[in-house]
Design brief:
The complex is a heterodimer of chains A (171) and B (246). With 171 residues, chain A is mainly beta. Chain A has two domains: 2-41 and 164-170, no CATH class; 47-141, no CATH class. Helices cover 13% and strands 35% of the residues of chain A. Chain A contains two helices and eleven strands. In chain A, the strands form three sheets. A five-stranded antiparallel β-sheet of chain A has the order 2-6-5-4-3, with no helix packed on it. In chain A, strand 8 and strand 9 (123-128) form a beta hairpin. Chain A is elongated, with a radius of gyration of 20 Å. With 246 residues, chain B is mainly β. Chain B has one helix and 21 strands. Chain B has one helix spanning 2-22, and strands at residues 33-34, 40-43, 46-51, 54-59, 67-73, 78-84, 87-92, 95-100, 108-114, 122-124, 128-133, 145-150, 158-164, 168-174, 177-182, 186-191, 199-204, 209-215, 218-223, 226-231, 239-245. Chain B folds into two domains: 33-152, Methylamine Dehydrogenase, Chain H (7 Propeller); 165-246. The chains are: A mainly beta (171), B mainly beta (246). Chains A and B meet through strand 3, strand 7, strand 8 and strand 10 of A and strand 1, strand 2, strand 3, strand 4 and strand 5 of B. Strand 3 (65-71) of chain A pairs antiparallel with strand 1 (33-34) of chain B.
Chain lengths: 171, 246
């Protein structure tokens, strides 16, 4: 936490410092312009919208694939930051996606006794999956994962927080 | 309001006590199986989770009221977690760490094997643990490959052998078969009749294999453009069943 935060503060400082050299340049709108750099764009949303759990019984294309999980006849796959794909594997040769559980900020999943445990940003969320026609939030432990953010194991943002993936911005 | 809170408290307390009694029925519970790249695992009545510098223990005997019972700050750059019996095997960027969960609420470090900096999922049983190390600009400069440890003495994991693999990722084992994902080579199938000397049997190419779960007779693979399923009734000879596109 400490090291990463320090590094990210350093990096952000460097990005900001890099603007100084271009201080006198302004574009047509009068904004200071400079070189293109990689940065992270914060995500803003009302908490009740950002944390709503919702099951949709239609398949959804995978955008940012993450961890996989097997439970009974189902395969689950994280879509990093947006939710969990549900695959019916009752007949493997006909296995297919059947639905999607919207869990913003998720990266991990485990299931025990029809209760699905995942993270929504830094909350632990328990989702009742006993009945696919009534998938709903069962309980929530807020702020338990002090260090979590959504991520796939292959993508490692340099700091904690609610950010989108690297994004081109013009300083 | 106060009355409601008190009532709620009493109900919760009763709930906790009722679980206390039932803790023996745990064997009948129904828990799924995760891939090796996971940071979440359920063992008994607890979820164990890792983030870069913390291990969290959360009691879920009452799913309506999960309770964080432990959080230890460590500085291992933890990547993955794998539960086997009363142990947690934690893969980090600096080594393999073994925790005892004899006291379920507070995992205790009992053994470690340091290695060069790399990414590191791990699986294990009573006598052996397999890790893949992926040296890269992200993860560190260690030699990429499969690292085989003798873990009969949990306090002192012994590196038995290493097998170079190009960009290895997730891995899983069942019976005498070990499956290792390699982004560069494909799905590597090893015989582990001799646990400490895996013997390559075949490499299945065609997909960018990332992680896998041996689940009954099906090998569930997370591949670059979706999920691929293989029949592993014959453990060392996976037979392709189905590819589910992203």
């Amino acid at each position: 936490m400490g090291l990463r935060s320090s590094i990210s503060i350093l990096l952000i400082s460097l990005i900001l410092v890099s603007c100084w050299g271009y201080y006198n340049r302004t574009d047509d709108d009068g904004f200071v312009s400079g070189p293109r750099v990689l940065g992270f764009r914060p995500v803003y949303a009302a908490e009740n919208i950002a944390k709503t759990i919702l099951y949709t019984a239609t398949p959804k294309a995978v955008v940012n694939p993450g961890n996989i999980y097997a439970y009974q006849n189902y395969i689950l796959q994280i879509d990093a930051g947006t939710g969990i794909h549900v695959i019916d594997n009752t007949v493997p040769s006909a296995a297919n996606r059947i639905g999607f559980i919207t869990v913003r900020g998720c990266s991990q999943v485990s299931v025990k006794d029809n209760k699905l445990y995942t993270n929504s940003y830094d909350d632990l969320v328990v989702i009742d999956c006993a009945n696919l026609n009534n998938v709903h939030e069962y309980s929530r432990l807020k702020g338990v994962f002090t260090e979590y953010r959504y991520e796939s194991p292959l993508a490692q943002p340099p700091a904690s927080g609610y950010y989108q993936c690297p994004y081109m911005i013009v300083l | 309001m106060r009355l409601l809170k008190s009532l709620y408290f009493i109900v919760c307390t009763i709930g906790l006590f009722s679980c206390e009694k039932n803790s023996d029925s745990n064997a009948a519970s129904n828990t799924g199986v995760g891939g090796s790249l996971t940071k979440f695992t359920i063992s008994g009545n607890h979820i164990y989770a890792v983030s870069s510098h913390y291990i969290y223990a959360i009691n879920i005997s009452d799913p309506a009221h999960p309770v964080r019972v432990g959080q230890s700050a460590l500085n291992f750059d933890m990547e993955t977690i794998y539960a086997y019996r009363n142990r947690l095997f934690i893969g980090s960027k600096t080594g393999l760490y073994i925790y005892s969960i004899d006291t379920a609420s507070s995992p205790r470090l009992i053994g470690e094997a340091k290695h060069g900096r790399s990414c590191d999922p791990v699986i294990a049983n009573d006598s052996v643990s397999y890790s893949t190390l992926k040296g890269s600009t992200f993860c560190g400069p260690a030699t990429s490959g499969l690292y085989v440890y003798d873990v009969k003495n949990l306090n002192l994991p012994l590196l038995k052998t290493t097998i170079p693999i190009n960009e290895p990722l997730g891995l899983g084992m069942v019976d005498s078969a070990l499956y290792v994902c390699s982004a560069g080579e494909g799905l590597k199938v090893y015989s582990i009749k001799n646990a400490y000397e895996p013997v390559i049997r075949q490499t299945i190419s065609g997909y960018a294999f990332t992680d896998l779960i041996p689940y009954n007779n099906i090998l569930i693979c997370w591949v670059g453009d979706g999920i691929a399923l293989y029949d592993i009734s014959s453990r060392l000879q996976p037979v392709f069943i189905k590819h589910i596109l992203n």
